[in-house]
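pasting YAP binding domain-containing protein for the record, 370 residues
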Amino acid sequence: MINKHLSIFLVKAVFLSSFSIGKCDQPCSARDVGIEGRSIVCVCNAAYCDTITRDEPAWNTYVAYTSTRDGKRFEKSTGPIRFLTNAKARNYGRSEKTQTRFANEASYRINSNTRYQKVEGFGGSVTDAASINWRKLSDSTQRHFINSYFGKEGIEYNMIRVPIGGADFSTHPYTYNESPWNDKTLSNYSLSAEDYFYKSVDVQQINDKFPEKKGGLKELYEKGPRNAFFLVKFWADLNTNNLDDPGAFYGVTSVYESNENMTITCSTKVCSFGKQVVEKVETEYARFEGGRFVYRIQRSPMCEYMVNFIHKLKHLPEKYMMNSVLENFTILQVVSNRDTQETLLCAAFVFEVSNSEHGAQHHIYRLVKD
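structre below
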């Protein structure tokens, strides 16, 4: 990363050819799969998988990640950066002493005043076919797989595309509205078996992010009903100035629906490093609207802890710092029947900062136990 204050002078940065390897990562276990003799893949199994961590470059240095046709795969190296003025850059490399070394160097002109594009993130497609193959792996290999794509020791995907219905390599063709034919109103729109069995998250993978004592996610899930449990990955939008207004109101509005008339209790637990920090319990009565019973908890004010947390989070200087904090911050929301204590809905929230120009976003996954 180059300090943007230097870029206003339109200096040339010369990346010297001498370099050193960055902090130790697990190297690629290479295998040539024989496509024209130049296709190298990294082999992962239950016992071993390559890793790649992101290093913050020191001042006047760079960090490079290199993949090549010959077999390098995210090979990390570091080296110094030499800053030259335009006049010096034109003369640099003309003498016999520097010509050889300059031939192995790269020059870049940096101008941070012009933005050419905005990158929201990188990711891939999660299809039923991919999920079926993933489920065939051992538990250890599954963890290596997830870490390689989404973990801090992997390529850190932060976006997922999920197809609506079958995909190219599905075991059979299907849609979410098979019948009636030409149903423009999608009256029979429903998920398929693949969605329930393969597009889900194992609850055991997130148990440690929530309290383990009485009323924690693990105990609640064992008690059931298991079809009431979901994971919500939420990308928070902190790009609003309203949070800094002296009279700003921090609140949450929740709406639930049911076919039965009952009184519900909504418990919201804020957790840090898997430990409960604060809990709010609210009770709501049903209103019959449009043939169903509706429960609205309107503008429920946030507690002082949450307000202070959001303020401190918003004023961190870098998004990676915000995400580092949010990695250990979770919310467990449980809606239950006040009279019978039956769990009606349990939503486990995990968070990250949104990079999208569209603001806050979320994905919902069903929690299962293999």
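The longest strand covers residues 275-285.
The chain is about 20% helix and 30% strand.
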